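Here is the promised in-class demo. Please do not try to memorize the tokens; focus on the logic of going from shape to residues.
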């Protein structure tokens, strides 16, 4: 059914871990990562880590193989496929990067289900090293949002998506991290927010629930994500169908009334 856009965060929402940490840990660079973390933004650090991985002989294929075995709850793939089969448009808004996300989605057979992926761009340079760039180039200008990391304001992305929809579709947003709080503030009353329970965005929302205009439905794992997501989609179906029936009944009433009215008789002069 047209009319619903489901927007997923990626790390700890579609997959059960943070893909950046997963690659660094699995390839044995955790200590260096932790040592450098206080010295630079996360996005810049991941680009630097790719440089160090390459310098130590780790190839792009080594990174891909690690990504292909990320842990994921068994109900996530069916949930995504079900939402797509019901006619929802699916998108990803993530602070990971294109190579990590697309490698994992292709491994899971899910790439074709997503119409758009907004994330940090990445490419393989002439030396075969993976480069990771910021979605928003904060070295040139600031996006101006104090809630978000310097390389990406997800709230601005949601505003752009909403503008492109022209109010004709309802949004269901799923996320777990503090970076998912800003977009939750941008959702409207007809939208739905699905924060992962006991994760940072859930904590932030619960500090002042009145700031969120969207209807909030929490989830804790992949099984609950699937159940809650499909229930919301069904609720929107029922609501939309009821509105269509109501409009149709009004039109039928008007139509029937117009046919029932007798023709006016001419008044003798």
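The designed amino acids, position by position:
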């Amino acid at each position: 059914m047209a009319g619903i856009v489901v927007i997923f965060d990626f790390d700890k929402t579609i997959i059960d871990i943070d893909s950046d940490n997963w690659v660094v840990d699995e390839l044995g660079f955790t200590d260096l990562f932790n040592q450098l973390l206080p010295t630079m933004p996360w996005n810049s650090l991941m680009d630097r880590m790719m440089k160090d991985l390459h310098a130590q002989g780790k190839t792009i294929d080594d990174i891909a193989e690690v990504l292909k075995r990320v842990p994921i709850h068994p109900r996530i793939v069916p949930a995504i496929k079900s939402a797509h089969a019901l006619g929802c448009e699916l998108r990803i808004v993530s602070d990971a990067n294109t190579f990590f996300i697309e490698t994992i989605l292709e491994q899971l057979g899910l790439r074709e289900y997503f119409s758009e992926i907004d994330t940090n761009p990445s490419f393989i340079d002439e030396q075969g090293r993976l480069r990771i760039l910021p979605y928003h180039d904060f070295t040139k200008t600031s996006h101006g949002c104090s809630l978000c990391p310097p390389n990406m304001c997800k709230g601005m992305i949601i505003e752009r998506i909403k503008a492109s929809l022209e109010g004709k579709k309802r949004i269901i947003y799923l996320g777990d991290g503090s970076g998912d709080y800003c977009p939750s503030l941008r959702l409207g009353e007809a939208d739905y927010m699905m924060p992962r329970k006991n994760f940072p965005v859930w904590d932030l929302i619960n500090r002042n629930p009145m700031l969120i205009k969207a209807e909030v439905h929490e989830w804790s794992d992949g099984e609950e994500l699937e159940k809650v997501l499909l229930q919301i989609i069904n609720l929107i179906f029922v609501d939309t169908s009821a509105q269509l029936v109501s409009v149709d009944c009004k039109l039928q009433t008007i139509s029937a009334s117009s046919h029932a009215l007798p023709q006016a008789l001419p008044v003798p002069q």
